[in-house]
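Q: Hi! First time asking for a complex rather than a single chain. Here are the components, and I think there are three in total. Is that enough to go on?
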Amino acid sequence: MAEKPTGRTATSSSIPLWRDVRVLRVAGQILFVLVIAAGIWWLMNNLQTNLDKSGLNIGFRFLGDTAGFPISEGIAYNPTDVNGYAFWVGIVNTLRVAVIGIVLATVIGTVIGVARLSTNWLVRKLATLYVETIRNIPLLVQLFFWYFAVMLTALPLVGDSIRLPGSIFLSRRGLYMPWPVVTESSGVWTWYLVGGVALAVAVYVIRRIQLKRADRPGFPLIWAAVALLGVGIAGWFLTPGSPLAFDIPVLKRFNFEGGMWLSTSFLALIIGLATYTGAFIAEIVRAGIQAVGKGQTEAAKALGLKKGLVLRLVVLPQALRVIIPPVTSQYLNLTKNSSLAILIGYYDLLNVGTTIFNQTGRAVEMILLIMASYMSMSLLTSLVMNIYNRRMKLVER
Amino acid sequence: MSVTKDEGIIICREVHKWYGDFHALQGISLTMQKGEVVVICGPSGSGKSTFIRTINRLEVHQRGQIIVDGVELTHDLRNIETVRREVGMVFQQFNLFPHLTVRQNITLAPVWVLKMKRAEADAVAMQLLERVGIPEQADKFPGQLSGGQQQRVVIARALAMKPKIMLFDEPTSALDPEMIKEVLDVMKELALSGMTMIVVTHEMGFAREVADRIIFFDFGQLIEENTPEEFFHNPQSERTKLFLSQILH
Amino acid sequence: MRADPPRDTSDQHVDESPPTHPGNSSGWAGGGKNGCAVSKELPPPTERIPVLRWLKQNLFSSWPNAILTLAATALIVAVVYGLGRWALTEARWEVIPANLKLLLVGTYPAGQLWRVWAILYFLGLLTGFAAGRRRGLVRRISLVACAASIALAVLPFPLVTRGWLLGCAGAIAAGYGLGQLAKLARERRWIRRVETTLWILSFPVSLIVLNGVGGFLPVIAGRNQWGFMLNLLGAVVGIGLSLPLGVLLALGRRSKLPAIRIVCTAYIELIRGVPLISLLFMASIMLQLLLPDSFRPDLVIRAMLTITLFSAAYMAENVRGGLQAIPKGQYEAAYAVGLNGALTMILIILPQALRAVIPAIVGQFIALFKDTTLFGFIAILELLNISRSVLGNLEWRGRIFELYVFIGVVFWLLCYSMSYVSRRIEKSLGVGER
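A: Yes, that's all I need. Here is the structure of the assembled complex.
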């Protein structure tokens, strides 16, 4: 075989650029960035041209203009309020649905998940039926079912509302229920509550010190909670008059007055989201509990721990470690899925956002606002999750 | 400074490598002739694996020169590709491609890199499998083979590229004891057939039988190199003596 | 309700006769050959009748369990009775067959429906062919598809449709026959290449045939009104196009070059942080602002584009998981043998990575299929949206429950089958870990 060409020295200055690994690496990045930048520049250019044509430009001052459209539910709002505030109402509505939905979904998911592992064959099969049915039907179909089919068709008109115990009325208009309202004596009771909190803190600290001295584990939090509860209840009876009154809904000519009102779209959204996400959480809970090997329970029992302690000290901590990350992403899914509210007439942030767009024509700004809102919720959840993960790791080491 | 093949098939001059602040290779200089079998030994972390991996550019050296068969290893892409084609490597963890059969593992590189025709590559593969003693395993998947058989396939895979130099990075360390011999036998046959080999190993029996030189590494430095006779009977440095006392029990 | 893992109830057989000792002529009651006492084996102290024993073990093992069983039974009876009564007496199921064509293929001209059938037949043939050549899951799938076609043909559809359905079963059977023949052939590799190519080609060819191409087949207008077909097309196009894009994004996210890594990570996190419906909103409103006037894609193209870009981010995360599982040694072995970066990726790394994430990809396909119901938001008349126009028809006003039950069942059947297939694949690949 012929001799290879020699004469190369060790200095890198003689390597032709197009073969130098380091150059190629940097060049690759530069090329990539250039291509992306060129693409973005082209899009922005088009954007500018089109905006100029319609005489608009990007700016957020329109948020200070009067909204001029009604929002039928949520915090106090008037069509004379500004767009920015209207959007905020939408965000609060989304958060309302998200929080209540997450709580309900967790409850449903935990119950069904544990049921999937029950010793009772019937209960087990029913739970499996629930999970397999709900998971394989699109969420939107379920939401439409709850809203259009159940709420708007199956429920009676306002005049013939279903009356549930406790003055709760259910009809096609929505759910009306009593809601606590402050009275003159509320102020007095508040002082009792403040005192209760102070006492609770004191009890907590004292108990902690006690436990530390005795070097035993315990739950000072429970003592504090009992203290608070005790003072609160005592204060309730001791205040003259009644600290809280209940505003009871009363049927007037066309509608109910008083009390708290939950619209049918809100109810449908909550039920649909909670049952749907609950099915996924059930699977996660089941997998988490099953992930704790049988040997763990056996070893704990062999050590003499009672059933409750086995669950609390051995099974649950290990199961939770496996359960919490995927459940958190389900919470995030629920929050994102709440955007389907727009299709069943609930004024969440997407709905309000698109309404503002329809009124003002400000596409780019509203898109940015809507995306930013959802991104913040996602990033917040990821942040909390990361903190939790890191804490779990520390505890392990 | 120009270089001719007469000086040696592998020439290392003052090779240094750092991992961050850790000085892994501290000025290694070594020359090897064609057909030589060199065994590198030393305690773990002494830089032996790092060193032989710089020879086929799986690790990048920061200072010094490495010249393989007249081609210097620099940032030049063409040089790197040339060297990799001429140097074959056998890993401690086998690293066979699990989704391909034994035959496909061996023919992959010749077909795609040497642009060989498939039939020709197949013939080469069967030839090599016979040479390492397991022609009947040709159409099985790596997961179905024992450790010793897998390592022999790795040797066949490396030989399929017709390399001038073979590097062995602790080839028998991951094997069960009863399978070490079959692999060592193949390596011995390879050495006797005239292949240039650098072997990082703890198998001193192999070294005594086949090595032309034994090199002792410690803390990133080349401490001692000698013929096997001299190395085992007349270790020069204290560290060599200590190491030998630890492994020859 | 205890959270113990379910007891194994599979051993239903009860051997009530006492076991005899083979070789011991004195039977079970007597002593051994040496005269020393042999233990007498007694039957277990349980219920004699197997059914009762099972009931006691699984439903009534304790007081709380017994109460649960009764409560659950009451619930089941109430629900089944209520639903059954409604389904058989009050419900008017005629709304479904009367609107079946509208729901399934929307406003696709009836005279051109042969194209849909042709595509189904072609796919049936390929499936049957694959089943004929292999065993296992593929064979089971084609059997189920065949049986389903025949079962559907029995239902009260117009005669022509039933004919087409039977033909479908025939296509699958024909493919099966061809597959069996192919097993006898010698040039296996060539056949496999042809089969793979046909599968890959079926994707764009089906789209072209459905849509029509100027010159050959007349183009069909009103693409956004094709009913359930749009759900299927959306899901298939979404997964098909997002797979290569997702692979690129995953590779980019793992790249050592910071510029590429940052851009890819930003894209993935942005898309995954917002709901699909907001992206559809963006597609319908903002897309025309970002594109020059001359380029105005229609609604369906926009929906497909959006769902592809959306799915690519999730696909990237799936593929990234697979890539992370590949040990570094595979890269090293490939480099040591002389393969460059691109060849290493294509021949060694990606085949292994993708094989590992097939279950995740199927899961994503199911989720995507469910998400296609959101297309209604941008005025695309897929199944859910087109059912509204059915309800708008005076004749079918108020038949809302029947329609939604139908839609639910259709989606459920497809999604459940797909998830069943995914679980079988997972098992056969041995990827059964949590």
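A: DSSP finds nine helices and ten strands in chain B. Let me know if you'd like any chain examined more closely.
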